[in-house]
Queue: 2 jobs
Job 1
Amino acid sequence: MVVSSLLGKDFREHRLAAVLLAAGTLAMTMLMLAWNRQAPYSMSPFEIVRFALLSFLPLIALITGNRLIVREYLSGTRQFVEALPMGRNLPLLLKYLTGLLYLCVLAIMMVALAAQQAGVTDDLTTDYVVLIMIKTLVMTSLYWSVVFCFSLCGHLRIALYLLGAALVALIAWYPGIDPDRVAPFALMDDQLFVFERDLIPWRAMQGTLLIAGLFTLAGFTLSRIGEGSLVERLAKPMTRRDYVALGVLAASGLTVWSTLLEQKTRPPVEFSSEYVVRLQDPAVSVLYLEDQYEVDGRKLAERISESMRSLQASLGLVALPDVKLVLDPEREPHEIDYATADGVFITANWLPHDSYDDAILDTVILHGVLSAQTAGRAMFEPYHWVLDGFTRWWVEQGASPLRDEHRSELLARALWVMDIDPEAQQLIDRWQLIADRFAYPGAESLAWSAMTFLEESRGRERVLALASEFLLSPLPDSIFGTIQDRRIDATQRVESALDMSLASFYEQWQAWLHEQQQAPGVQAMLSSIPALQGRLASRSTPDGVQELEASYEWRESRLGLLTDIEAADGRCVLKHDYIGPFDTEIEVSNDYEDEATCRVGETVHVLNSLYSPGDRVYVALDYEDSVFHQPLRLHAERMSIP
Amino acid sequence: MMDLAGEAEVAMDPIRTGVDKNVNILSLQDVRKSFGSLQVLDGLTLAVHPGEVFGFLGRNGAGKSTAIRILMGIMRSDAGRIEVFGRALHSDVIGIRQRIGYVAQDQNMYPWMTPKVLSRFVRGFYPRWDERRFQRLLTDFDLPPKRRIGTFSGGMKAKLALTLALSTRPELLILDEPTAGMDPVARREFLDLVRDQAIQDGATTFFSTHLIDEIEAVADRIGIVESGRTIYDGELDPLRNSIGTWSIAMQDYVPGSLPGDFARQRLRILKEGERQGRWVISLQFSEEVLASHEIVLDAGWRHESMSLEDVFIAVVANA
């Protein structure tokens, strides 16, 4: 009776807020799930659960604690309740359990919604969902315990939340602590939370529950100190003095934080070796390792420097990031490592190959330069095709005339992509899909062909105008800047830069591209490509061996591709690797490949026991020959091993 | 004055409810309580008899509220013995509280509730909750059952608290300075209600206040507490009668003299000094003196009238 009275009171007092909060939470979750589902590269829906746990569930816990506990203490109604005939700890215990139950129900509903949205690739099993749910509930209990404890601290609670947040930030940031080994950070690991299916993170869960238990115990202990007199003394609204103290605390925290950040700043990366060619304005450094490579290194530095200077003048760039190139003579020509720390840092085998390979390297460097210039903004998906297409265009014909053999190869590859997937013309909407399916060379050729069409039909200035629109401005540094920036969507900006509708552009560009098919050089290139398509199958043998099989078959083509498999001089290569949830534009390593003579109508590649059920794998079937500098991706698929 | 006659049939019968008329309803013996270095109760001792209205008098900060919180089992004493209804308080705090109606000093009721909703909440705690009585008292006290409590005046809230307390059919009603913050009219009205309830129900009432006139209006016996100690526990009249004030013109005053033949007797000088050209002296006599001696004044001395408030101040000042 007593319990139902107390619960009934809380229900009557908070029911509206609870319903609104729950509706808001679930609406937010569903919105994010829907957004995720519509996105070209959807994540696992359980990523949404993880996001919710890291972002708005703590806020909901905060609101719940504020209503259930803080309000009761601040308004003094606790004194009314404590004079009623019941156990001392009962009201607080019921509030603790009510809050925990409410948040757990919300968390369970979020997991259930995510599970309902899960697709085949998420390989939903009961064990998997239960594991995710347990992890979610453990985190939820931690949030509620912290809020429960701090809610009893009255006017000190805001300061405690700030201190708590600072502590979390410090642990996450401090180099001496590996958050992945510390609960609860380990439980929320960005990979393991969603993708760990088999191992139960006992230690992380025990650690998290231990912390939750300590906070709960601290809360109940606090409520008993001085028979509740301490909590009663704390339970008062913040005074002006408290606000001043809080301000001082926040200012001190920020000062400490900025001091730590200053200490963290390190001098920029510079080559200390004497085997370095250094050019200034724009700054290009080439590490050539041995005397014998110095001449090539200097040529490369001058070539890059000249290209960048010319780009700077054409686009009106005020400054350019430093470019540093490291030689690794052991690498394949197209095996280029790329980073944007302290400017652009590239490791490649840049010793002379042919002009096409040089163009690939130069394109990667300029790609890095413009990415760094825009603080990564140029990589934003709707603009990414402009970055890829423009950099290749600039390298091929921006500063110097286009070589015929390059043109033929790029056009042939672009036509081949369009032949397989006519939807690939949707550059803004489907760019990541194109890159995933046809790999970087295929996507880049397509974007280059769009830029070349623009140049030939509307003039060089139009290409530069399009690049200026998307590749010059860094990310806005304020919320207003961001809002202003997003006021006009990418399509409108492209249309404004092109001075034509996007539909017309796509139509005219495609017509132009098909005309290029008639060029003898292009035809020659196309006729060397076998009209093959790949097929992948995964199965489990009666012995329990997991097999991945690949075969090839003919496909229809309007490009006059090679239809005699015997005449094909290239090799069929299966490439494969594990993938994470955020891996896009995957370049599978050469270490994981199976090369074979191309055959039609039979299994060409078989992988035995390499992957286990539940693994997420990217598998590509490439055709590599001596005509094209880079492989042609016949088939690509993200697989979840059943 | 409220008419509670109609409820005579449900008035408390101390025998029926298990209260022995020979046993104190409430008994505190040498109760001590301190908060850190602050000694709030320092050997508080008092007893409340069945059916009486006991006035618990003391200055602000004398320890009245702490004593009541200890009586209610909200807080524990450091030492001493507390018995309620003849049983040690902590042997069954919940059971004892169910038999007590309590009106706190501050009415911290939920402002969003209406009296109707409040009764739904509170009745779950009291097995003897009388909904009919609650409804009737609401009507009698002119309390709107469907209005939010947050909109009530202080007096209305106190009445509502009394309504709640009475609706539990208490054997002991504890009122902790319930009229604090009320205007004189509301205060008088509230005291009338308490007195009526005491008459009608026959329930024991423990009335804590620092206002003498309230005690005078309702109490059968009083306990005066000062600095956490009981300095008087008994009926009002003996206290009043035990203290007298006399004055003499300054020119007639012989230093060290008393108004009459008192020096031989046991007495205590509570207060003496000059006031408006006269030497004024207040004396307190023991009960034996009062019983066996007639007061004969010496020449020049005259008796000064003394209110209960004067008595209280004199007693407290000499505690």
Note: The mean pLDDT of chain A is 88.
Job 2
Amino acid sequence: MKILQMELRRMMKTRLTWGLLALALLLSALLAYLPVTYCYSSYTDEEGNEIHLSGLKSIAHEKERQANASGIVTPERVREAVETYQACLAAYGVTESYDLPEGVYEREILPIVPLLHGVKEAFADPDTGMAPALMEIDPERIDDYDSVCEARIAALMALEQPDHPAVQRKAAEMYRQVERPFKVYPGMSSVIMDYQNIMGFLVLLFCVVIAAPVFSADYQSGADDILRCTRHGRRRLGVAKVLAALLVSGVSFVLCAAVYILIADSLFGWECLRTSVQMMYSIVTLADLDVGGLQFLFTAAGLLSVLASVSFTLFLSAGCKSTVASLSSALVFGILPVVVSMAVPGALSTWLCCVLPASGTSIQASILYAITDFQFLNLGGLAVWTPYAMIGTCVVEIPLFSFLAVWSYCGHAGK
Amino acid sequence: MELVIDKVSMRFKDKKAVSNISLKLTPGVWRLLGANVAGKTTLMRIIAGILKPTSGQVLYDGVPIRTLGEEYRALFGYLPQEFGFPQEFTVKDYLIYVAALKGMTKRQGRKRIHELLEQVSLLEVRNRKIARLSGGMKRRVGIAQALLNDPEVLVLDEPTGGLDPGERVRFRNLLSEFVHDRIVLISTHIVPDVEYIAGCHAMIREGKLLASGTTEELVRLVEGKVWTCTVPAQAVAEYERRLRIVSLRNEHDGSVSVRYLAKKPCNDHSAAAVSRLEDLYLWMFPQSGGADRKKSSRKQAVSGNL
């Protein structure tokens, strides 16, 4: 315990740690506010003036306009919204909402938009996956909305995983477990989650930079020769170094995530967290979560990914003789999931992204996108949903790489 | 208490750094002598447990140090030849950190740190970052950390490198106070640093142990091989070419007094001299010490400084 305290003090004394942690907190706050600046809306007031709103005013305006849509998304309410939509467009003799006269969309359609989310997707062609226009949908079919959605997930999985019936069965089973009817509380978009992803990715890189020199800096400076000749300078010091790095990284990530969530949710409204993920992402998303649950799960999985990446970085650090080598190799592994998701095709990419420790918060390949996607790992006859695989891998990797780091440090032969 | 180096060999890829060395170290100051690249540092790192020998083992009181592990390190102190410090530490913080790693309590640590800082004259700079200290000061911090836990086995690899003459005297005095009932192994090229306190010596060359024993035992090896004679100043160059010169001294009459090593006297007026440790070193390591020594001796002799 005493050695851990000393190691924590040592780590917190370095300017690099402080600088990066301060920067991470600042970026978290900035990234949480950034989506607000993209919010824009306009409407025509009673006197015929066109009013343009941006930022928080725009969010407040849209929330006010869509207040009646919030709540439980029953098939009746969806049907009513579709009928309103179709009647409005028919009244103006158009087939697309953007052809409506000025001000009509804001007045007639905007208030029901949250309820229309996912309707077109639910009625997509089972063979081609092409979604129809809202005008083409028979409102009567919405009465059995749940069955339509279940048929949709079955058709989607048959299209995406034609050779894996186990995956198709598993996806259908998962979707049946999703709590319905869905709920929607307008005001928040998936951009908030995207920015949380960016925040997590940056904090992960910062943590990797902090952890990379933990062992290698002492090797490089020659300080290690003295330390490893002390009574507790082998296993205990190795364990203390690993724990200190994991603690600093973990606390940093949690702090940054807390700052991000507090700011973002305060700006967009805490009630939005009760929205079902199906009303923010695909209507057939397999996760039985609301947005608050998704935020929490993504944070927890991000934390695991950061800890797994840091323990892997420590393992690299314990094996490298210079900080440049440990830092560069750790950064390569930190960025690798991004490259893999872009450059490696098919199942190999899915497998690699599940195995690489930094995948959890990686851009494009993070657990957030895995939760809202329909990827499965096929292990013989077993179908494993990728978020489970990613979380499971991290849970295994944290103790594994921590142990390997200590083992490598203890066995390190000097220069 | 004894530290036994038992048939220790160390190979790095294609190079054998230490070759089958066996040596029993008993309490007292041992000096490890050898030219550069003789394998001294490698041997010390093996004794410190940093390197695992290719073959052989080091035993403390009959138990392999690898088996003792933590127990051995608890009574061990080590100052490497080249070492660094974590950049973020002040002198005091670093010593507190090392004291914790050495298993000392906070109270023990603080008391011992204060004593040592006083002894190595670093009390005034205790709150200064180590990175901002001079080379000599850093080495004194290194010495202080090695002595923190009052080790029973102390290994110092070139401890006086970078110290000025005053600091070297203080180091010698500090070591003299410390050595009682302990095994101290020192590697240094600077003979006077440990001449008076090192009772035993081990000489290694190219990784092999050439000789070991007390000063008297070893000096006896060059008995009858140390000679002095007086030669004209203009003949010095010729003597330097032919002989293994230990020292030159300008005399008042313009002649030069030469101390040299040879199995037989080189002329009729040479007289046998009492052998010293320095003679032994040059006898054992003619290439390494001789060439440098010749140049410096000649310079000093010519300028009349000797």
Note: The longest strand of chain B covers residues 15-25.
